[in-house]
Amino acid sequence: MDNQNETQVTVTDNEEVKNEEVKQDDTASTGTPDLSKMSEADKRAFFAEELKNSAIENQFGKTETIVVNEGTKYQYHMILAFPGTAIASQIEDDATTDATGNVDFTKLMQGAVDNGVISFPQVKSLDFWNYHKGYSEVAAKVLNFLNDGLAGNLE
Question: What is the pLDDT of residue 30?
Fold first, then answer.
């Protein structure tokens, strides 16, 4: 590598061209240029382009259909709708009971009901599951759905 750098210095005295050659060499091996060799303006320009290229489709309102009690006579479908990052994060925070990450499913499901995560059928209370099987299954699927939305993985 030292021979390459010496060659670059020998080939040109033009600092701009030399920096561009270094950026290309660094980018080829890691995918990211050596930030320590970049000016603050170049870093900001690189970061802005990187941010633009890393954008995903808006997760708010994305839906997923789940099947509960699949294959039984108690089977039913529900549609989950992502409430947005702030609300999804708050639902999970409110339902997390301690530093180990244990989840209080009552708080999780109440937050999901209160914030319209279950968009169909229109569940008004956890008492819905007094008349339908699958509360624990739905709770697990709601948690996975919220996590997928928070990770930006909903399609």
Answer: 56
